[in-house]
């Protein structure tokens, strides 16, 4: 029912993704930006909930504050566009009110639905952007201080910032980061226990990658990185923040 | 840095998404399936965590059980391929163990990271699949009975099934579902309160859409649907299930 003419180009486009952290000053056309968001809207959404709001941030002071709270990621300030993707149950709460109902708030399930809605939407925006020659960088570090982000954007209850997205024309051309061997993550019928050999294989791939990127300076492997990352608490404020925002995880 | 030749095709491809619930018997080539998963792996992932495992289910009995627990969605049984996308922190737990650490388990933040990783990955699989003429349907209803899904797939702790995905060649050609007006979800600088007029506009769009699809039988608008959906508890077992699986939301 669809033609297959763009077969290879789309697979290649997807496979060529890498985060861009340095952008030219070329602006993104207004009409293109709207096309990208429309592409995002076309992604699947649970029961047509559309639990997504996108806030476009242009104010330089807001940008600077967000770059800082994200740990000093200058590209948040510099990218032609910076979008904050929010999981939004405020709109559905409004629908409930209109018909005299009260939203069953704080459900873990609703939290999952809205968060997944946001990610599917954003990834469509990303694919659309990259097909137009733009580069992108997701900014999960907005969750370093989600309360400040909420205050800056005047987010009401039942809305939380999932991540930001830098968009602009690339002023760098980094290589793609190698991923885990396909067979380590694609399984048949049942979950497969972690295969130590596969992990060692990937560790060596990543060691080579980091050495190439840093001219031999960085000697690091993936399993060590993960152990450093997951071996410590991460953003322990999230639970309380979400609860305060109405996402009670019940 | 990238050519723009596929500009319109990709935007059009994304905009033409609709769920497919009836498939031909044509199988999906093994090499194509692997290409799709590779495309998924290329999506952004938080700190290169790659918190995703994909389980390909072919066993007809498992398929039938999942179709049933998903509320009798026959296409789960019938589609050429059925994939279960799991948020996976078991692999990173293994990395911690290897270096004598203990994973800081149960963090809400880790839950968010892995869930978002899964959705970004899956959406890339979907875009790749649709570019190859396949149709897809996300199956969030696996969360109707996530424990049974976990048992069927032998999922260990720190792994949970986020959703399923039917893949196959379409045997139907439904129209795209209209989405909220762009200006209802794209906001400048700050969150914008719900605009009742925009909502009424969309309600009428959806009324027309449903009437057209059902030959005038269905008289329903979006805001009513949302109020019915969110006005009641949804999958209230999720919290306890996740907690038992190691996702303690702390």
TrEMBL record, chains A, B:
Pfam entry (one): Nitroreductase
Keywords for this protein: Flavoprotein, FMN, NADP, Oxidoreductase
InterPro entries: Flavin_OxRdtase_Frp, Nitroreductase, Nitroreductase-like
Domain (Nitroreductase): residue spans on this chain: 14-169
Molecular function (Gene Ontology), one example: oxidoreductase activity
Domain of life: Bacteria
Family to which the UniProt record says this protein belongs: Belongs to the flavin oxidoreductase frp family.
Name by which UniProt lists this protein: FMN reductase
Organism: Endozoicomonas elysicola
């Amino acid at each position: 029912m669809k033609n297959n003419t763009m077969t290879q180009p789309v697979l290649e486009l997807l496979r060529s993704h890498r985060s861009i952290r340095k952008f030219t000053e070329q602006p993104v056309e207004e009409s293109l930006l709207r096309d990208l968001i429309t592409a995002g809207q076309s992604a699947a959404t649970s029961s047509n909930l559309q639990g997504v709001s996108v806030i476009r941030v242009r104010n330089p002071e807001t940008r600077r504050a967000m770059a800082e709270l994200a740990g000093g990621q200058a590209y948040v300030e510099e990218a032609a566009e910076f979008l904050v993707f929010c999981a939004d149950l405020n709109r559905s709460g409004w629908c409930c009110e209109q018909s005299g109902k009260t939203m069953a708030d704080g459900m873990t399930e609703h939290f999952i639905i809205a968060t997944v809605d946001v990610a599917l939407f954003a990834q469509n925006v990303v694919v659309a952007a990259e097909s137009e020659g733009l580069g992108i960088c997701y900014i999960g570090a907005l969750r370093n201080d989600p309360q400040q982000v909420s205050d800056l954007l005047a987010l009401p209850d039942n809305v939380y910032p999932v991540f930001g997205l830098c968009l602009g024309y690339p002023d760098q051309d980094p290589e793609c980061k190698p991923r885990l061997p396909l067979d380590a993550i694609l399984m048949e019928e049942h979950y497969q226990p972690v295969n130590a050999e596969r992990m060692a294989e990937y560790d060596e791939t990543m060691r080579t990658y980091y050495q190439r990127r840093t001219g031999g300076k960085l000697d690091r492997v993936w399993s060590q990185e993960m152990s450093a990352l997951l071996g410590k608490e991460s953003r322990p404020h999230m639970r309380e923040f979400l609860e305060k925002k109405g996402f009670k995880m019940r």
